[in-house]
Design goal:
homodimer, 2 domains, about 15% strand
Chain lengths: ~400, ~400
């Protein structure tokens, strides 16, 4: 049969990032390409104990259909995570989602009509771009510097695009750059959203993993008139496999999210929700996150030190204070795919920068992940990568 | 803030079925309204053993990000379920979804543009109607009789609606009617799909739960040119809380589903997938399904006997050979909501027929569920319901 797809389906059958991640999955390739947490830190024994307890004490409820908004026990746990971000709220403001990807998808579905504009950081999380595109959105990328999204460029973009419906931002340890938006820019960003009456979608998957600098309040904590929709997740602090995320917004909006979620998948896995709630009841999540933070910091330092030792001096990189990624710019290189190819020839994988941009790309850029590579292997990988960079730079 | 929603969001904040199910959830109400499996049959101990084994033997994989298409172990299990339906295939033809609701949502998103037509059985599964509406589809309802969708009416509908993109059907133990499409109609339906070059979305959540008559082959088993997309689920035979469903189609189409699923929620809960695969490896699912079938049959017989004993003779009901629902028509009643109200006054809940229809409703209809009410309570509930019916009929 000759399928006639809707306009939402990408024409191309090739998913460039899928191809990269597949290649990077080859066991002989050292991959700095993915975005996976370190699996050796998953609290497997504690999750097993939680699963046992949940199935012993409330097996039928954990295996039955449940509320589209999520179980109250988990929404209660989420309030504790929100308090760290300066958000004081109640469980009526929270819906549990099947991971942050679903939070993004439901938001796109709810707010974007064909031809609407979404403002994103340039570069930004590429799968969010795919989602918003599938709902017919145009993109306007706003330039960043080491302090996050540039607010002057944002106001310019808002002025020039009156049909902007959403500003999508990852203010802390941004994917792909690892950069963090300053406090001054955070307050200013929320003011601009109010002034131009557009919504901010604040995505904060990495915020808890900080080894340097002070924790900054979330955009949501400055939100007076419900212009900020906040998203969080357990993927980076507990387990991505469980697919547990959340959206925080005013209760009327959470009702709409709940209706849309019901259409999307009825509700999030009941067993996973009960297990997560029980894990939080029985364990100290802050200690666990401290362990993750220590390990990622160690790996990041090894990576940065190796970069400073081996990469040509002209090459620039971000200096993340937390999170999972850093961002590299190689001056004079026009085609970042060449960097990927040259690295892969040496069995090292990175993600070339192009797919992370909503509009025009910044050439010669790529993303590196340090959370998922054993300490002993990082330096050798960076050394090989430096040879690839030198080859492409024509050194 | 004054939210501006996309056209996909229902204008109304009231979800009529949500209201009914909420009311029906009141512990003092005897509910024939829901569609829940009997939780006392969930194999809690076996799932606990499976969770233990999975977390002991492959904890890190079960808690890590996974493939958007689903783990091969579970897709292998699904092949066994498909063989029962006469579908011989391989795991490249299968994607794991976050329950059937997601299978419907992805299908709507992939195939429906604004103004396209979806042909549905009248009445049909109401949440499917909501999903297709959210993608801008029009509905054409095709009349049913006790043998399922009427094929003459279907051909008429196909002729009159050349922009039909999808025929959505639940051929076996249909929701809400409990009716099963005959073998002759099944073959004819697939022929018509080929003749008019439209896709069939075959939804089969209840097929395994049969106590009478012979198992009928699925529409997919007659499909020569990829005109049938088949959907299945573990919700009714193992656990709905785990949110595990699947779509079966040709591998090129499964690739598109996989891309769309990646946008929707990255992948289905890894732990739930591993637990389900391990459950199937360690247990005899057919024995388990036989236990479910026995209990639902017992409850259905009690309900039918009580209906025949207490309901006015003019009232008609379907006689399901399996599944979870039966369908009641009360002649002379124009407003089925009145039946709901009169029943609720007596602390009994049913679902009035109106929301199940794509277009014009058949008045005086309602759906009854028998899978989730203890045997000892059914007769008393039906007796109260008979009083409600008599009141509305003016007897």
């Amino acid at each position: 049969m000759n399928y006639k797809f809707s306009d939402r389906v990408p024409q191309s059958d090739t998913d460039p990032v899928g191809v990269i991640l597949k290649v990077a999955g080859d066991p002989k390739v050292m991959s700095f390409a993915g975005g996976l947490p370190a699996p050796e830190l998953f609290p497997v024994e504690q999750i097993k104990a939680a699963a046992n307890k949940v199935l012993t004490e409330k097996g039928p409820a954990a295996l039955q259909y449940g509320s589209s908004q999520g179980i109250p026990e988990l929404r209660q746990v989420i309030l504790g995570r929100l308090a760290i971000e300066g958000i004081k709220t109640d469980i009526d403001h929270v819906i549990v989602t099947t991971g942050s990807q679903q939070s993004i998808d439901l938001t796109g579905k709810m707010f974007l009509n064909e031809g609407d504009t979404v403002i994103v950081e340039d570069p930004t999380y590429l799968t969010a771009v795919d989602v918003f595109k599938s709902y017919g959105a145009h993109f306007v990328g706003v330039a960043m510097d080491e302090d996050g999204m540039r607010i002057d460029a944002l106001e310019e973009a808002l002025k020039n695009n009156p049909n902007t419906r959403l500003i999508y931002t990852i203010p802390t340890f941004q994917n792909p750059t690892g950069r963090t938006m300053t406090l001054a820019r955070r307050t200013k960003l929320v003011e601009l959203a109010e002034k131009y009456d557009v919504l901010i979608l604040e995505d904060n998957p990495y915020g808890a993993i900080r080894w340097e600098g002070k924790n900054l309040p979330s955009l949501k904590s400055f939100d007076k008139n419900d212009h900020v929709i906040y998203m969080g997740t357990l993927s980076k602090i507990l387990s991505p496999g469980l697919r547990l995320g959340w959206v925080v917004a005013d209760p009327n909006l959470i009702k709409k999210y709940t209706m849309m979620k019901q259409s999307a998948d009825l509700h999030t896995d009941s067993l996973a929700q009960y297990i997560a709630a029980e894990y939080f009841a029985a364990n100290n999540i802050d200690e666990h996150v401290a362990g993750i933070t220590d390990l990622y910091h160690k790996r990041e330092q090894i990576m940065i030190n190796a970069i400073d030792k081996y990469f040509p001096k002209e090459v620039k990189h971000s200096n993340p204070e937390g999170g999972m990624f850093l961002w590299v710019s190689v001056p004079g290189v026009q085609d970042s795919q060449k960097l990927f190819d040259a690295a892969l020839k040496r069995n090292v994988a990175i993600v070339p920068g192009d797919p992370f941009f909503g509009n025009e790309t910044i050439p010669g850029t790529f993303r590196m992940n340090y959370s998922n590579t054993p300490e002993a292997k990082i330096e050798a990988g960076v050394k090989l990568l430096s040879e690839a960079i030198e080859e492409v730079m024509g050194k």
